[in-house]
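The following record pairs a protein chain with its ligand, retinal.
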Amino acid sequence: MENFLLLAKMDTTDYVGFTFFVGCMAMMAASAFFFLSINQFDKKWRTSILVSGLITFIAAVHYYYMRDYWAANGESPTFFRYVDWILTVPLMCVEFYLILRVAGATKKLMWTLITASVIMLVTGYWGEGVDMKNAAIWGLISGIAYFYIVYLIMFGKAKELATKAGGNVLKAHNILCKFVLIGWAIYPLGYMAGTAGWYGEAGQLFGCNIDMDVIYNIGDAINKIGFGLVVYSLAVDQSKEA
Ligand SMILES: *C/C=C(C)/C=C/C=C(C)/C=C/C1=C(C)CCCC1(C)C
């Protein structure tokens, strides 16, 4: 009974726990921001804003659990992490489709992006949580799926559609591409920090001891909230024009 309703202790030097905590609050705040702004937009853009809010909301709920899991067990919440990603990353693929619809994006393009993202995440999960001795091979397959997404949005069909749409849509598309090319590249670094066999022991990345979860948490904040804000400002511009 003594432990009833006791909150897990937060060590003042637990910077991993700190990033889980702040990440959770940031995702909640971003969700409120996106959801409450929906009505100010032209109808065509509401779905895009709704999806931005869903991405940060799903992350907020997962961060709530991950923060707790970390506080209670002091280990990576790999399972929750990948459940979060497998829901939110395909939704980011849906965002590309939604903003390119004006130029005639097809469902086929959307499903191709979603399929590649699921392959990227399932193989990553396998390397990080199931078949850890072969982390390098799973990471490689995951990386190929990642580069396929980069190819499609920067040089393939999606790029073609964005160019056709031009104007603000093209501008927003190009920024979102940078999120995928640069922002998403943070994750393989986290993966290498968390799995053995890259630069010595697990936890050693380029000779520094940066925790995998800190890298993932920073990546998520940039990619989920920042990505959503790019879509938000596109919707602001386009609703003004309409
Ligand atoms: C909101 C969450 C996002 C945007 C997560 C993105 C995750 C990735 C781009 C993960 C990529 C990985 C590789 C490219 C190779 C190693 C394994 C992964 C899954 C960490």
